[in-house]
Amino acid sequence: MRLVILGGGESGIGTAILGKKKGYEVFVSDFGKIKGNYKEVLIINGIAWEEERHTEDLIFNADVVMKSPGIPDKSPIVKKLLEKGIPVISEIEFAAPFTDATIIGITGSNGKTTTTMLTHHLLKSAGLNVGLGGNIGKSFAWQIADNKYDSYVLELSSFQLDGIMNFKPHIAIITNISPDHLDRYDYKYENYIDAKFRITMNQTEDDFLIYDADDEAINDWFKTHSTKAKLIPFSLIKTFSEGAYIKNNKMEVKINQEEFTMDTEHIALEGKHNMKNAMAATSVAKLMQIRKATIRESLSNFQGVEHRLEKVLKIHNVQYINDSKATNVNATFFALDSMNTPTVWIVGGVDKGNDYNELMSLVREKVKAIICLGVDNKKIIDAFGNVVDMMIEVTNMNDAVKMAQRLSEKGDTVLLSPACASFDLFENYEDRGIQFKQAVKSL
């Protein structure tokens, strides 16, 4: 069997290692450059590879092709493969049959990284032999090749779910759905929603789907679609006989005739959206029969996720917050919603089809100045130019942070929450967040 891998990043290299171990003839092809450390891994393992091109003769003889999530279905090479009837799948689809571990799959437009990390933290603290992968950390396929975990917590993007046929998690979570990556879905929101719900398409009556019952897009989907999985909703406003909710400042989780309660003030994560992430993760912990005391302790000592509403420093009584991971409007909505002080907001980057109107009332209420950090800021200026007193454009992080310091006064917050992708000025959102933290520390 010939396995061709498009993309020599973390997921591509992990799939190559697993494929080789399982007896496939493996070839890795990357249209860009492959990082030095990944090349070394390929060479050590005797895996054939090429970079800065796709040689069609070496690709079209594949029995199966694994495509990295960053490569769109519209790319010419993928189109040709599909025309030839060669299956193009994601790493998750390729790797899953090689493990009998319990899989917990987490998707959503926002909150999926926090929910994934928190779920992993809950299970690991309980002593479970559990791996963490998917969209974060070490490749799922690589872990299956190297380790023997009893369960995996996987963060799954819509791109990874686009490439599945038979993959099914035992427990699936959809944290929420809001418009994102619409450039990859023909600018049709319903295509993106359907992509997220692929997480449950192969689930059976023995599996579980945990979801946000306050989410409009999710509720609309359920009006015309169904899943065989057992449904476990969570909500800030409704209550359930089976599910999770907040009532009188207590989180209550009822699953399998068992009840778990905890005062929300003892949960380490702050903000309404994080209460939802906590309810989703706790629902998994209850399904995995983790002890109540362990769940309480884990929820109260969880450190949060880097680049997600991360408090950096307080300088002259101004709090600097790094929310670089907010790459869409909905994520920034959560960030602004949790601000309790006048805010200098650093925003901008590569717009993925954003509608800034959703932020209008929060910007009016909380934002005193806007710093646009992007190559093209026209949409942001058009949206908020008349709403805030002060609007400034910059093209690097140092200028953004220095300007924010000038515009802020005691008791304010400086918030980096870009609502956009980072590729115009930065390598990725991590690079953007790290540059922000360095700039703040050198003030």
From TrEMBL:
Annotated Mur ligase central domain residues: 106-284
EC number: 6.3.2.9
Main location, first listed in the record: cytoplasm
Pathway noted in the entry: Cell wall biogenesis; peptidoglycan biosynthesis
The reaction(s) this protein catalyses: UDP-N-acetyl-alpha-D-muramoyl-L-alanine + D-glutamate + ATP = UDP-N-acetyl-alpha-D-muramoyl-L-alanyl-D-glutamate + ADP + phosphate + H(+)
Binding site for ATP: 108-114
GO biological process: cell division; cell wall organization; peptidoglycan biosynthetic process; regulation of cell shape
Keywords, sorted A to Z: ATP-binding, Cell cycle, Cell division, Cell shape, Cell wall biogenesis/degradation, Cytoplasm, Ligase, Nucleotide-binding, Peptidoglycan synthesis
Keyword Cell division: yes
Cellular component annotations (GO), alphabetically ordered: cytoplasm
UniProt keyword Chloroplast present: no
Localization per Swiss-Prot or TrEMBL: Cytoplasm
Domain spans labelled Mur ligase C-terminal: 307-420
GO molecular function, one term: UDP-N-acetylmuramoylalanine-D-glutamate ligase activity
Pfam families: Mur_ligase_C (PF02875), Mur_ligase_M (PF08245), MurD_N (PF21377)
General function of this protein: Cell wall formation. Catalyzes the addition of glutamate to the nucleotide precursor UDP-N-acetylmuramoyl-L-alanine (UMA).
Family membership noted in the UniProt record: Belongs to the MurCDEF family.
Name the record gives this protein: UDP-N-acetylmuramoylalanine--D-glutamate ligase
